[in-house]
Write a structure and sequence with these properties.
Layout lengths: L1 H23 L2 H15 L8 H21 L3 H25 L16 H20 L10 H25 L14 H4 L10 E10 L2 E6 L12 E11 L22 H5 L4 E6 L5 H17 L3 E6 L2 H7 L5 E3 L2 H7 L5 E6 L2 E7 L3 H10 L2
Parallel strand pairs: 4-5, 5-6
Antiparallel strand pairs: 1-2, 1-3, 4-7, 7-8
């Protein structure tokens, strides 16, 4: 039994540590996933708190994972893990059975799981944690208490530091389709062998006070103006294989609404400054203006891409300004603003504005 419990502890602990660290690499990604759940449930008032929830959740996962491996405060930790896995199982079960959320974000964007895979994983973890709860009195701390506390504090502070770093400097491991080295146009292509979901159109009409339903292939033989349209619904006729383009909604438009995506990607070498909004403009104004001047002195064109074009015009009237959807920018630029060094549609380099020194050096050396 002792060896069996040790194996269970390592499995549970390593999974929680891995899950917490993967999401700590990109805490904003988890916060956006939380917002997706809250939107489905109508809890939009919690949107302003999702980043704080994300930061705390990631630290909690890593610390409890470490604690269960070394056996520190196992009686308390086992119950905390049970509460956490019940919560996770509810979320993944909701995603699976409601169909309203495609993925739960359990391992972030680096290891995307389907709702079914996430739910199965959580059921297995639930069983293992129940075993830990039942036999918690048989588990002893593996090291002396002062060392155990030191390891817990290192885990807590290390995870906190990691999250603070990536929120300022972009994820250390970029698993998003807009990562360095990717070609945006290639990421927008539908994968070979992809089969999209197919839908049937169902119509609802009224005639002589009676509501009638029929699909697009079975209109009544006597259909005429006496049929009064009520509604139309799309019904899934055949599910596809889930393969789709990594980037589905990237578009750059002028202030007047003209699509300029192809024209921008036709440029040989240029900078894209992606700024979703200007809420904290004062904190990055000086860095961005220095970068713009350096690029222009080195004959590198600069384009400002934003979801808030009207404010952008007030601050950067001398720059080409293009509009882009805010959701797209949240994915492409985890730090606001983020600088892309572009060659055609290729992302040659990608930096947070806080890496101004690296950006300046890259501008000088960029060929």
């Amino acid at each position: 039994m002792k060896n069996f419990l040790l194996i269970v502890r390592w499995i549970v602990g390593l999974l929680f540590i891995f899950s917490g660290l993967v999401k700590a690499n990109d805490p904003l990604g988890l916060s956006y996933k939380m917002q997706e759940f809250f939107e489905v449930w109508g809890w939009n008032a919690l949107h302003d708190y999702t980043l704080a929830f994300s930061l705390l959740m990631n630290v909690f996962e890593v610390v409890t994972g470490v604690a269960v491996i070394i056996g520190w405060q196992i009686r308390t930790i086992s119950w905390l893990l049970l509460a956490l896995i019940i919560f996770f199982t509810f979320l993944t079960g909701y995603a699976l059975f409601s169909g309203k959320i495609k993925t739960c974000g359990c391992f972030g964007d680096c290891l995307p799981l389907t709702a079914a895979q996430s739910f199965t994983k959580d059921l297995v973890l639930l069983l293992l944690i129940i075993i830990l709860c039942i036999y918690r009195n048989n588990i002893q701390v593996a090291i002396s208490n002062p060392f155990a506390i030191a390891i817990i504090l290192i885990s807590l502070n290390g995870t906190g530091w990691l999250q603070s770093y990536v929120l300022r400097r972009l994820p250390i491991v970029d698993c998003l389709p807009y990562k360095k080295g990717n070609n945006i146009l290639d990421q927008m292509k539908t994968p070979e062998g992809a089969i999209a979901d197919s839908f049937a159109l169902n119509f609802i009409y009224k005639k002589n006070g009676q509501e009638l339903k029929f699909d697009q292939a079975h209109f009544p033989a006597d259909f005429d103006s006496t049929y009064i349209y009520v509604d139309r619904t799309d019904v899934l006729a055949k599910k596809g294989n889930g393969l789709k383009a990594a980037i589905a909604d990237f578009s750059l438009q002028t202030i007047s609404g003209t699509d300029s995506t192809a024209a921008v990607f036709d440029n040989k070498q240029y900078l894209l400054i992606l700024a979703k909004d200007f809420n904290e403009w004062a904190s990055w104004q000086q860095s961005i203006e220095t970068i713009i001047k350096a690029a222009q002195l080195n004959h590198i064109s600069v384009i400002l891409v934003t979801a808030d074009a009207s404010t952008a015009q007030q601050h950067y009237a001398n720059l080409p300004i293009l509009r882009c959807d805010a959701t797209v920018l949240k994915t492409a630029a985890r730090v606001n603003p983020t600088i892309f060094f572009m060659q055609k549609a290729n992302i040659a380099f990608k930096y947070s504005y806080t890496d101004a020194n690296k950006i300046m050096q890259q501008i000088l050396n960029w060929k």
